[in-house]
Amino acid sequence: MPRSTTSEERRQQILQTAATLFAQKGIHETSMDDIVQATGLSKGSLYWYFHNREDLLLTLLQLFLDQELQLLQSVQEQEGPASERLYSMLERYIQQLAQAAHLLPVTLDFYAMATRQEKIRHFFQSYYQRFRLLVKEILQQGLVREEFLPFDPDEISIALIALLEGTTLLGIIEPEHIQLEKHALPACRFLLESLKKPS
């Protein structure tokens, strides 16, 4: 007898289906009816899990951002030289983006929405504040251990994240010319190496 689908499994199915549709058609062109048809659920069932389209969007955005931060946190807690831990963090971040490359166009829609919708903007602000703090904490540890030349960890954390996010944006627009592994990682490595004290 086949195992019945749990409520959480059904919820995750809806989110995965919605993310795929958003990536294919765009957020604004994807309706709740499209999601109903793709999941095979009734409209009533869909609205039982998500009260409206905004509820689904915010849940999906929160899921994306939390997954990234959990990965970064796990690397941040490792041992070793600060520069290597930072590089490992950025490398893992890029690997995760590459695994979800088909969903990256959704990011552009979310960024555009953040300029007009305060809730979306708040999600991104909270995410980047936490991302910067993780990077900054490792940089500060490296400064305390005298692994680095003096610098402002706030400025460098912003620069590293800007390298990643800027290259991601270019890669979405020009995927045939821009790849995160090829362009972002070497730039981050160059910046981190330039901060290290000569051995």
TrEMBL record:
Pfam families: TetR_C_6 (PF13977), TetR_N (PF00440). InterPro entries: BetI_C (IPR039538), Homeodomain-like_sf (IPR009057), HTH-type_TetR-like_transc_reg (IPR050109), HTH_TetR (IPR001647), Tet_transcr_reg_TetR-rel_C_sf (IPR036271). The keyword Repressor applies. GO terms for molecular function: DNA-binding transcription factor activity; transcription cis-regulatory region binding. Residues 8-68 form the HTH tetR-type domain. Keywords: DNA-binding, Repressor, Transcription, Transcription regulation. PROSITE patterns: HTH_TETR_2. Residues 31-50 bind DNA. It comes from the Bacteria. This is TetR family transcriptional regulator.
